[in-house]
Amino acid sequence: MVATALTTAPALAEDVEVLHWWTSGGEAAALNVLKGDLETQGIGWQDMPVAGGGGEAAMTVLRARVTSGNAPTAVQMLGFDILDWADQGALADLNSVAAEQGWDAVVPEALQAFAKVDGKWVSAPVNVHSTNWVWANKAVLDSNGIAVPTTWDEFAAAVDALSAAGVTPIAHGGQAWQDATVFDAVAMGALGPDGYKAAFIDLDEDALGGDAMKTAFERMEFIRANVDENFSGRDWNLATAMVINGEAGFQMMGDWAKGEFLSAGKTPGDDFLCFRFPGTENQVTFNADQFAMFDQGGTVSAEQAALASAILSPSFQSAFNVVKGSVPARTDVSDADFDACGKQGMKDLAAAAASGNLFGSMAHGHANPASIKNAMYDVITAHFNGEYDAETAVSELVDAVSIAK
Ligand code: GAL
Predict the structure, then answer these.
(1) Of 29, 46, 26, nearest to 38 (Cα)?
(2) What is the mean pLDDT of residues 61-84?
(3) CB-count burial class (<10 Å; 0-12, 13-18, 19+) for 2
(4) Measuring CA to CA, which residue among 350, 351, 353, 328 is closest to residue 338?
(5) The pairing of beta strand 120-121 with beta strand 116-117
(6) Each residue's pLDDT tens digit, 339-376
(7) Which of 72, 119, 163, 200 has the most CB within a 10 Å radius?
(8) CATH 3.40.50.300 holds for 130-285+351-404
(9) What's the pLDDT tens digit per position in 310-321?
(10) Three-class SS of residue 241?
(11) Which of 64, 73, 78 is nearest to 16 (CA)?
(12) What whole-number distance in Å separates Cα of residue 125 and Cα of residue 302?
């Protein structure tokens, strides 16, 4: 896209075409906050939605667009995918915007690791999500005498109680990225923070193949036994709807699930509960959505700079993340407008970063490049669908990672 020379408003002559996968009710509501913000600045929006939670389908479309020489202006992207496109020289340099707004001082280090390459800002972080959350229907828990579980055993007892009462204990969508999202939390609980880091970030064979990993897979079997029979292929937001409607007790999902509760008019504490997956209360596995700007011919365009600058503005970071379910990608945004879950999310993130318990999510592309992530997905999903037992899954995981490395 080449900026046309105009006599009036020359800076923002072009629309921005934004490729993203925010198509659920809660996600669309959050996206509208961004669209509205840009509108007030005279930036036009050309929507390029590619449905599919977790963004795999969006990344496939992106590759096709880039290959045909027609990259979108801006692309929602996660973790290692950003680094990969930056290495290929595909992303515009955002340093001028970053310097103007002082991003270095306010964006957490853990995010800079995926937004800056060789001293160059290549993407604009819009949020921080985390994956080790459980979402619960409060009335369902109350009517079955269930308190918020804080250990795996308490969680398992709560699941058994719901099952005995004829309620679907766990709402789940059988898609590889959702299986992996649940596994993220279950593995963190079983391995602990050091084990999680060793296995999923350092790819240490002893950790990948150890007893704790076997425990994680065994726990996945318990979860598999407590989802409804129609789980296969279900979209994540439809699983969230089961908890919202009281058809199911729990969903293990990242905090984008909160966006669905909010867009259904539900209130945390009254209608639904959010809590960390039992045994992971002091850890955070994060994924941060960012917008990478594709190089449109040398320098960042005026529209791209305006989009990046709008995304990082503190007021936008608050307004957007309040709706999305995530927390701000800046450390200096007040939590005043956030609900109880959002306030807890912000507190947890800061505490985890300070205590060395903040880790990139394996399931959402922040622990390893896509090739390794996908190798892990295959094993987690095959095991979840009963192709092999926990012991075999552990050795399959070790093998799959060593081949993908
Ligand atoms: C994640 C993304 C979130 C959320 C989710 C489900 O990968 O970071 O923003 O949209 O997928 O689509």
Answers:
(1) 46
(2) 96
(3) exposed
(4) 328
(5) antiparallel
(6) 999 999 999 999 999 999 999 999 999 999 999 999 99
(7) 200
(8) no
(9) 999 999 999 999
(10) helix
(11) 73
(12) 18
CA of 54 to the centre of ligand 1 (A): 5
Cβ-count burial 290-305 (b if 16+ within 10 Å, e if not): bbbbbbbeeebbebbb
Q: What CA–CA distance (Å, rounded) separates 403 from 34?
A: 41
Ligand 1 atom nearest to CA at 236: 6
pLDDT, one tens digit per residue, over 266-276 is 999 999 999 99
Domain 16-128+288-338: top CATH class: alpha beta
Pocket residue to mutate for ligand 1, from 23, 285, 289, 290, most atoms within 8 A of Cβ: 289
| CA–CA distance, 76 with 190 (Å, rounded to integer) | 32
Identify residue 60 by its one-letter amino acid code: T
Element (H, E) at 257: helix 257-263
Q: Whole-number mean pLDDT of the chain?
A: 95
CA atoms within a 13 Å half-sphere pointing along the CA-CB vector of 72:
23
Residues of the chain with CATH 3.40.190.10: 16-128+288-338, 130-285+351-404
Rounded Cα gap, residues 177 and 157, in angstroms: 26
Beta pairing class for 133-137 and 168-170:
unpaired
Query: pLDDT digits over 259-299, tens only?
Result: 999 999 999 999 999 999 999 999 999 999 999 999 877 68
Q: Enter the tokens of residue 319.
A: 């307004």
